[in-house]
Structures are given as C-alpha cells and as structure tokens.
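Everyone, study these two lines:
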Amino acid sequence: MSNLLLLLGVVVAIFVGFNIGGSNTGVAFGPAVGSGTVSKLGAGALMSFFFLLGGWTLGRRVVDTLGKDLVSGDPFTMRVAVVVLLFIGLALFAGNVLGVPASTSMTAVGAIVGLGLAIGQLKVEAVLEIVGWWLVAPIVGFWVSAVVGRYWYDDLDEFINIDQSKGRLVAFDTAGSLPRPELGPGTTRREFVGTLLVIAIGCYMAFSAGTSNVANAVAPLVGNGAISMTEGVLLASGATAIGAFTIARRTLDTVGNDLTDLPLVAAVVVAVVSSSIVTVLSALSIPASFVVIATMSVVGLGWGRATVADPVSETPPVPGASVGVPGESAAMPGEKRTAPNETKTSDFDGDRDAADSEVAADGPPSPAELYQPATTARVVLLQNLVPGIATVVAYVVFRYVPIL
C-alpha cells in the first residue's frame, strides 16, 4: 500500500511539474517569443535547462520552507502529500487551460495553509511573512517597470538600438572545409549582441523560476522523507521540461502578445525587474510569486509607455476601464514623435503583416495598443482566484474528510 501511495505521489508531482512548465515558460520567455527573438521550441529547451539549474542551487532553500516551515509537526503523510500536490496540479492546470499563467507558489502555499488551518498547526508568523512579500513584490515590479516605461524607455532604446531585421540572425559560410558562422543578411553587430542579451535574460528568468518553483512540485514528498532533495529537484525539473514543450504554448501567446506590445527592449526591462525580485526572495527562502511579479512588470511597462502616448493619464488605469486615444500621441519608444498623419519609419517586430503596415502608415500606436486593461483584469483576477480556491478547498477536505 505504501509503495502504491508513493507511486501515486510521484505521478501527481509530475503532473504539478508539467503545469509549472506550462505556466512559467510563458512568463520567462513570453516577451522574447512575442518580440520574435526566440521560437516556442527554443523557449522550451532553454526553460528546461535553466529551471534545473535554479532548482539545483537556490531552489533547495524554498523546498525546506514549504516542506517544514509552514506547518508544525510532521503533517505530510503520504496521503496528505498526494492530496496537497493534487490541489496544486489541478489549480495550475485550470489556469493553463484558460491560457492564464497562474501563480504556482501562491497555489502551493495556499493548499498547505489550508492543511495547517484544518489541523490547527499552522505557523502563522511564517505565513504572514510570505504573504507580506507577496503584496510588496508585485507592486515593486509594477512601479519600477512603469517608471522605466514612462521616463527612461526612449533613452534605453536609443542606447541599445536593437531593431530587428528580417531573415536569419546568423548564417553559415560553407565555402571552406568547415562551415563558418557569420551575421545573417541585414543583421548588424548591435542587433546580434542585443538579441543575445534578450535570450540571456530570458534564461535568467528561467533560472529564477527554478529557484522558486521546483519546491511546489515536490516539497511534500521531500518533507516526509519519501524522496531525497536531489531526487525531488530532478523529478520536478524533468516534469517542468515536459510542460515547457507542450502546454506552455498557450501562456507564451498570452504573455508575449495579449498583455502589451513587447519589442526587444521591453523584454529586457521586464526580465531584469522580475527576475531580480524573484531571485532575491528565493535566496531569502521565500516562495516568490514569480508569475504575478513578471506579469505585473509586463503590465507596468505597458502602462508606463501608454502614459507617454497619453500625457493626461497620470494614475494607473482601473482594470477594465477604457483608455483614451489622444489626437496627437507619442511615438513607439525609440522613434521620433510624429503627427497623426505622418508615416513611421521604424519597425520593431521584424515581421509585420499588411494590417500592421497600415497602422504604421496612419501614425504611432495608441495607448490601447500598448496596454490592454480587459486582458489585464482577467489575468490578475484569475491569478488571485486560483490560490484562494486551493486554500478553501484544502481546508474543507482536510477538516471534514478523514484523510489524516
């Protein structure tokens, strides 16, 4: 019976890791994929490797926090561990099906908090510390990105200057005995370096995701001694890789294309802000809400850029509210300001279709093209609703169902 429960626990942990890969790959590489820098297949491969690296190093600290520091005593019997992991996996799966990257850490902590409340052994001070960081971190991510988007984005874009050209970034000269790599047609050295920078920062985000989220798949199993820490890290990372190559395609589209327009410089800003916050919290053994921080960074940057296009707007827009389009607006970051009927000459997406060309001919993008409040409201609502449901359901089950 114990071997069967262990097998079931491993299967559920794989299910959780699978959904972690689906959720976090979208946030880590959504900006890079949305800007055309990395393909979805490449995003899956990079996510898999750097998630493992993050879990192998700082991720062990967060495993200890979830497995030992939230509930006193030794509550994680195999039955309890399986049920907690099942709550986490089902909640994340629902978010992935809806195309919204749900917060893995918030869902995991919510399920464990429900357990602690049900059995009366919750370490309230530890939970309040984590929740306090959860409230502060997304706000910091939003405002740092918003300030950059509002005041410094144009300067950063001019400094980096990584407009994308069409065609391959790198080509191979096959004239000699060995193929020799060289810059692709139309690719400048500045574009090549800038593109590598965006990819590197996406890998940094994947590393940050590993530091925070590897614990969410295996902490109950490691906490009760069913598997070792090393086995847990490898199990979670392998399952995450499966999700990164499959279900992550939906969240890649949501974060990369639906929340805001993300050229390469925007991808750099979002990645640096969110990854730095998550890595610091993981080093402090705090299970950080990676998805929420990165999503709010995307939203903050989009809003900050929208306020450049609409100087009248000096306060954050209410999710779901309409965003006005001024008669004369600021150009896309990195371009000169143009009148509404002037033609833009810069192209950040590299691959524009006919409809995009018409927009470029009519004038600069409106605030509504930089920031989508309806999509933002849906994402934020579901990101907070999913862990709340996990907490309530876990409490009811552990309180009234004879599992312990």
In short: The radius of gyration is 22 Å. The beta strands are 170-173, 180-183. The first strand starts at residue 170 and ends at 173. The longest helix spans residues 124-160.
